[in-house]
Known about the structure:
Layout: H1 3-14, E1 24-27, E2 40-50, H2 54-62, E3 70-73, E4 87-88, H3 93-99, H4 102-107, E5 111-113, E6 116-119, E7 125-129, E8 141-143, H5 146-159, E9 163-165, E10 168-176, E11 179-186, E12 190-200, H6 207-211, E13 216-220, E14 225-232, E15 241-245, E16 250-255, E17 261-266, H7 272-277, H8 280-290, E18 296-305, E19 308-312, E20 320-323, H9 326-329, H10 338-353, H11 362-394, H12 402-413, H13 416-427
Parallel strand pairs: 2-3, 2-12, 3-9, 6-15, 12-20
Antiparallel strand pairs: 1-2, 4-8, 5-8, 6-7, 10-11, 11-12, 13-19, 14-17, 14-18, 15-16, 16-17
Amino acid sequence: MTELERYAAARLRFGQQHLSKTMVVWFIHSNRDMGTGRWVALLQVDIAIIGSGIAGASLAAALADTGLSVALFDRRNEPLDTARGDHIQPAVQPLLARWGVLDAMLAAGAEYRAGTRWFDAQGSHVLTVPVPEIEGAASAFLFLNHEKIGQVLLDRACQSGAVNVAGISQWEVERIDQGWRIDWCSDSASSAVKCTLLVGADGTASSLRQRFDIPVERHRYQYPIAVLYGRQLAVPDARTLDVYLGHERMISMIPRTGGETKVGFPVSSDEIAFWRNEPEERLHERLFRWCPTAEFDSLAFGAIYPPVSQKSGAYRGEGALTLIGDARHAMHPARSMGMNTCFRVADQLAGLLGTLPPGFHEDAVRSLLKQFDAEFEAELTPRLAENHAAGLQMDTITGAGFPDLVEQLQRASENAGMLEAMALKAAGAKG
């Protein structure tokens, strides 16, 4: 096999047209771990990211113009489902513009929304939290279905030369001199990657975190979250996120593109079968009982998932390794902070890594990771605490605490300072 043939074969294996020839080092290798006994392309990159969801794709997109070589790996072939975060805070949108993805999200169908409206158990309006004026921030929230956000970020990363390896069925990582080696295989290919920095963006149950015994603090909330998808009878031109403090629970009505609405609320274990299996008219009846002023033309079950809050410690072993996304800071969906925090962390880490030259030494990146860990603790720990408090507030079935919350919202409606503070937090400017 000629060098040109090997290069062409590698492009097919990796499924990328952006793989530069200078990034590939060729050698004959009998892969003892995967047992293929075939030619293997050993890809040499600066940074390997395990997980190509929002966190991993965000970091790769944020690194697009740094000159650093990046490879992403994931078991999935498609972005995560849309039952996840899809609203981008005004204070975060400048990051996306700087990465070169904001216009692409708008081209993919992203829409703008105003603030958040709160309603009591009778469906009466209590408070509207507006979008505040923040210097350098957008004037509205942005929303786009989760899987489309992920695809835009991946496209940006790959356009800049990142290698995206999807559909992996098996992978192994081992420490080597001045870096890491990842051996992987799929149904159609197998290969290996050598990197200096290994980043785990592989979710709440992170295999990398388990592999290297990185400590984690975790809180499992009492009730899982049910997600419905529907279309309301009246969809205003100016979309808002609506929260109903019903007799039995807190219900969030989250705008989706195309005039659709995502409805999220906690459920007890004996209710799950109802939401999964009952006909549409029964879903309408139950939801109308909780939200009497929110009428739907169509309504369908989407998903049920258990929310969790967790924070992982820093890696203290040999080599350069760090965790991001849910692997590092999983959050309750209350306040829509999880994805926005991923964007912030990716920007923070990319800003540090971008000071390094291509082919950087392990010692150089290890010192930057110490700085990253310190900044994470200082800046993001308060956000995690705030989100956890909101998660506990939402994690109720009885609604016993809602009168107090309604009273708090009513006070905010009469106090400009309180209202501004709520608006700034919601927009991502503080907290």
